[in-house]
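#structure-requests
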Amino acid sequence: MTPTPESVPLQPAPAGEVAISAVDAKQRIVDTAYELFARRGIRDVGVNELISRAGVAKATFYRHFASKEELVLAFLEQRDQMWTVQLIVGDARRRGGTPEEQLLAIFDVFGDWFRRDDFEACSFINILLEMGAQHPLGRASIDYLARIRGHVQQLAEEAGLRDTEDFSRSWHILMKGSIISATEGDTEAAKRAQAMARTLIEQFRA
């Protein structure tokens, strides 16, 4: 009789590794990387620390990620989903009743984020500055920043604004600038950016 998954005994985990499934092990590594990379950047976090904090064996780590760079790319993908799509765009769409209100609500979301004790700024900007625009991770960060502009452009199109690509680039400058200002300690940066954003919308009305 072919044994079922339930009937197969778990094999002992390698020394230092918690007995978890392959899928769970990979997600644990990504979740650990998310926490560390978001707070401390890339260069400051070593593979040995990632392995220790994730509670997996070195062989398990390299079975899922051939290199630290590959793990950073997985982190950026998760950051895009959790931060850009769910936190920023998703929350802004829930807060605003119209596309224009949803655009402006981005800065309301930012305002709450800037006041959090765990505010960690924008990982895409951080990695771009840390690694440089010519590095593969820098280029990946640029691509994810472009995705953010794409979300803004979509809202601008829904709002009936003109020249939505130019609008989204200008809007993104306000977003990125407010994040940098908040990193400097200006907790009102989102409110200041939102005031300028209202003027920008007026300039781009069809």
